[in-house]
Amino acid sequence: MSALDDAGLRTAHMVASVLLGYPDERLYEARPLLSRSVETLPFGEVRARLAAFLRHVAATPRRELEAHYVATFDLKRRCCPYLTYYTYGDTRRRGAALLRFRHAVRAAGFDLSGEELPDHLAVVCELSARGATGPAMRLLREHRAGLAVLTRALREEGSPYADVVAAVQATLPPARPWEQEAALRLAAEGPPAEEVGLEPYAIAGGDR
Questions:
Q1: How many helices (H) and strands (E) does the chain have?
Q2: Residue 11 belongs to what H/E stretch?
Q3: Has residue 122 got a pLDDT over 90?
Q4: Any keyword Nucleotide-binding (predicted)?
């Protein structure tokens, strides 16, 4: 099980939520705070992986990091940061799954800004960082197979973002055998497909 207490989980998820967003001014202004926050975490995989990505940010020109983010998360479906995609793909059932994330976000008093979907990994991490750690952890555990597939895809792409997603994975309790089997099956078969266009998104966004 993760060695982090509740405060450590919130800190780790806060850092991950910023790092998993688009690398705009918010990230660069927050770098000193993020580094100090990581230094408060106990030594272990979570701290090491988040620190490694922050070193990458420090050593990489901003335009290069921006281009990599877009090329990785926006242009490669296999590196999708939306957790329900791995379980439901673009099927009708994804709409109901997205509503569950939205309800968890709203129950915590967290108002989504812009057009971001509530199952984006950065949003779920921010939910935890804002104090709703229990609901966020439940959502992460339920979609840990997707997290595992995303981490694997990022590693195969040679993306440093693999460290951030792996750090989030490391905040979860050890996977049980059936969860490991689900991750292997998902990696082999991929998300389900259905010819429904953007209907799941319309269902999820109807109450914005």
A1: 12, 0
A2: helix 6-19
A3: yes
A4: no
Residue type, 207: D
Q: Is residue 55 part of a domain?
A: yes
Residue 182 falls inside a structural domain: yes
Q: Determine the structural domain holding residue 171 and report its residue range.
A: 6-189
Stretch among 6-15, 36-45, 46-55, 197-206 having the lowest mean pLDDT: 197-206
Q: Give me the long-range contacts of 50-55 (CB less than 8 A, separation at least 24).
A: 50/12, 50/15, 50/16, 50/19, 50/163, 50/164, 50/167, 52/160, 52/163, 53/19, 53/160, 53/161, 53/163, 53/164, 53/167, 54/19
Instruction: Look at residue 167 and tell me if it is in a domain.
Output: yes
Domain count across the chain: 1
Count CB neighbours of 143 within 10 A. Answer: 23
CATH number, position 173: 1.10.3480
